[in-house]
Every structure is written in C-alpha cells, then in structure tokens.
Write a structure and sequence with these properties.
This protein has 452 residues and is mainly alpha-helical. The chain has helices at residues 4-23, 27-41, 47-60, 76-90, 95-109, 113-132, 160-167, 189-194, 199-215, 226-238, 242-262, 268-290, 329-339, 347-367, 380-385, 387-396, 413-416, 430-439; strands at 149-153, 173-176, 299-302, 320-326, 375-379. α2 runs antiparallel to α3 (47-60), α4 (76-90) packs antiparallel against α5 and α11 packs antiparallel against α12 (268-290).
Length: 452
C-alpha cells in the first residue's frame, strides 16, 4: 500500500509517462500505463488518464488483443457484483444465498454502516420483486427536493460551457461539477427510455442499474461502463449528507423494484402506462441523488447531464429546463482541433458526425409533444454578442436578474468573443473550413454577424 507521499509521486510520474506515450502515439503503452494506474487507484482521480486511454483504445479496438481491454481492468469485487447480478436475473439462486453474498460484498466495499445498511435493505426489496413479484407501496407522484433543475446542454464544443458560466453568476444557483452519466449514460436511465417496449430488457437493466449506478461495482464490459461506475463511487465518497443519501438510495431501489414487477404484467397497456409513470418518479429521485448536498433554496445547475442529441428522454423527466446551445460548425471544428485530445483533422468525418447530431436535434423538434416545454435553444454566437439574449434566457428559466450578483466573474463576453467566428482567424484551415461550409451551409451563421 502506498503512503500519501509515494502515491503522490507515483501519480505525478505516471501523469508525465502516459501523456508522453500518448503524444508519441504509442497507444499500446498508453493502455498499459492506464491499467497500472487503475490497478492501484481504480476510479479515484483517474478520469483524465481514462480519456487518454479511451482515445488510444479507439486506435486499437479492432485488434484481438485489445477487444477485452476494459473488462481486464475489473477487480475481484467488481466480478463478484456481476455474478450476483446475473444470478438474480436468472432467478435460479435462493434469496438467502443472494442476500448472504451481497452482505459480504458491501461490507468489503464500504466502511460506512449507514450506507451498508441502506444498500442491504435496498437489495432486499429488489430481490423480492425479482423472485416473488412483491410490489413496493408508493405515492403516485414522487415529490422532488427542488422545484427546478437547469441543464445546459451541448453536443461537443457547441458553447454550452459559456451558458454554464453565465448561470453560475446567479446567487441562487449552485453548479454540480462534471458530466454525470446516471441520466443519459448508455447503461443508465436512458436505457430504460430507449427500450421501454421490451419487458425483458427493462427487467434485466433494472437489476444491473442498481449494481452499476448505485452500488458502483460491476465489470467494465466496455468504456460506456467506466463513467457511470466512477460517478457512483464518487457520489458515495464525496457525499456530505450521508443520511439523506441513504434514504434516496432506498427510494431509488423501491422504484427499481416496482419497475421489475411491472415487467411481469400481462396487460400491455397497463405495463407501458405504469412504467412511464415510474420512470418519471425514478428520474426525480436520481436528480435528487446527484444534488443531495444542495439545499432546497438553491437551483441546481447540472452540466451536460443530457446532451442535445439525447433530448428524446425528456419525455420521462419533469421539473427540468434544458438549454441547448447551437454553434456554427466551422467554429466547432477549429475549437476541437485546438483543444480536444485525440481529435483527428478530417473534415469529411466531422461533417458526417455534425449531420448526424443536428439531424437528431431536428427530428426531436419535429416530433416533440407540443406540450413539452422543458427545453429551449439558443445560438452561442447570439448569446455571446447580445446581452438581451442572455437576459431573455435568464427570464425564461425563471431566474431573477436581481440575483445576477456576480456578473462577468465566470462568463466574460470580451473573452468569449474570440470563440465567435474563430474559423476566420486560423487561415491554415481554410480548405477544411470551405469544405465544411459547402456541406453544412444550413447550420452556418451569417458571416456579417456583428456585436451589438
């Protein structure tokens, strides 16, 4: 076991090593470096190295030796959790056996008695629903701790960070750092929404959801598992109000157990109606979980927990307002080229990815229920250049401009303006920018846009 001094030295040395290997495109060594870091630190402060490993993996994923790379990182406790989850789904193991194994697992994973007891009680109710069809009692509607959650949303260098900085300047808002994956992760809440018509998939995911997104222990089958598992561990480790957290874990588990029971209903219409209502309850409880330390008098601001290309899941969320930032694709290309680790300067690939994202946005707008009022779109360029656009946005979100007490402390228009039409500055990109313009004209802003 490393002490604090040697551990700090180890991480410092590895930080330089993995960055050097990445810069030299020695991708095999990058993955070896990350495996060594993860073996000692697991999810603790390894996310920046994970991003390098993820980029390197993209270059090697088709090679047989690396196809199971992510799973190879998993610890014995993560394997035990997965076996336990699978046995519960199969339904061929007794409740006493499952509970005994889970009790041992959580005592190995956590040293907080409140969390341990909460998890054991939560698992117990999920087991009952999975094995015995026991339906947990509940109120029809879950009442959220906060009346409103604000979610700045982007799709990769689209300017949502500027909106986030502006919202931080209001005295009655509080920012949740990081892009939590519990809502839109491929193995998180979004999976329910996208597979709602498949009872079997919903049942299996309800069990897995508990292990991945609440417990934080499960095999890392691919890189989509990394962030949700990391988020779950960090939430428990950093939570200040552990009693409230444990109560929310129980509520979430009761919700998951009801979802499990609904999947066994023979009445198709009743199943879909019940599940849709329960998903709204679950989403509220999840939002409360990730904002557990924010007092009820503050409005939580959650950075990109729903990206613009996943707006369809808003059908299953209440009490949220999503602000979607749209930006000229030419500027996005320049910003990614300058700032994004592992970004490849290939305008053809970029155009294809932008079309895919923006077509998803158009499809959502065209098919969204007309009563759905929990999203809005804003042009990044207008947001930066026009004060009235920022003020209108604040009003639309229900924010009082009198509470904008820290103006220009985080969002400074005079600084952000350099990211408006930045494609005009980097003349060495001219051919690429011209190609992007020819293929994405409808998404390019008026070049005569001027500051007001």
């Amino acid at each position: 076991m490393f002490n604090m001094v040697t551990d700090k030295y180890f991480m410092s040395e590895f930080a330089e090593l993995i960055a050097s290997h990445f810069d030299q495109k020695l991708h095999q060594l990058v993955l070896d470096d990350f495996r060594a870091i993860f073996a000692i630190r697991e999810f603790k402060k390894t996310f920046k190295y994970y991003r390098l490993a993820r980029s390197s993996y993209g270059s090697l994923k088709k090679i047989d030796d690396y196809k199971n790379y992510w799973a190879s990182l998993s610890s014995p406790l993560m394997l035990s959790a997965t076996y336990l989850s699978n046995d519960l789904i199969e339904g061929k193991v007794s409740k006493s056996n499952l509970i005994q194994r889970f009790d041992h697992l959580v005592h190995e994973c956590f040293n907080n008695d409140v969390i341990v007891q909460s998890l054991i009680e939560s698992f117990d109710c999920i087991v009952d629903s999975a094995l015995h069809k026991v339906l947990q009692k509940t109120n029809d509607v879950y009442s959220s701790k906060h009346d409103l959650y604000i979610i700045p949303s982007g799709y990769g260098w689209s300017g949502s960070g500027a909106i986030l900085d502006y919202l931080k300047e209001f005295s009655n808002t509080t920012l949740i750092m990081g892009e939590e994956k519990i809502i839109e992760g491929d193995v998180s809440f979004k999976y329910f929404c996208r597979n709602i018509d498949n009872n079997d998939l919903v049942f299996k995911h309800a069990v897995k959801f508990f292990f991945i997104n609440i417990l934080g222990y499960y095999v890392i089958y691919d890189n989509n598992y990394y962030k949700p598992l990391c988020d779950a561990r960090n939430r428990i480790e950093k939570c200040k109000n552990i009693l409230e957290y444990s109560q929310l874990v129980r509520k979430i588990s009761f919700s998951l157990s009801r979802i499990i029971t609904y999947t066994k209903l023979s009445d198709r219409q009743l199943y879909l109606y019940s599940l849709k209502q329960e998903l709204k309850n679950l989403s509220k409880a999840l939002l409360d979980l990730i904002t557990v330390d924010i007092t009820s008098d503050k409005i939580p601001v959650l950075n990109n927990i729903i990206h613009t290309y996943n707006l369809d899941i808003l059908e299953y969320l209440d009490d949220v307002k999503v602000v979607c930032s749209l930006r000229d694709p030419r500027s996005i290309y320049i910003s990614k080229s300058q700032e994004s680790v592992g970004f490849k300067r290939d305008p053809s690939v970029f155009v294809s990815s932008q079309k895919e994202v923006r077509n998803k946005i158009k499809k959502f707008i065209n098919h969204a229920d007309y009563n759905l009022k929990n999203y809005s779109f804003v042009s990044f360029e207008d947001f930066v250049l026009k004060p009235n656009v920022r003020e209108d946005l604040a009003k639309d979100l229900g924010l009082n401009l009198n509470n904008h007490q820290f103006a220009n402390q985080y969002f400074d228009p005079s600084v952000s303006i350099k990211n408006v039409n930045n494609f005009k500055i980097y003349t060495e990109y001219k051919k690429e920018i011209d190609f992007i313009y020819e293929n994405l004209k409808e998404f390019c802003i008026n070049d005569s846009c001027e500051q007001s």
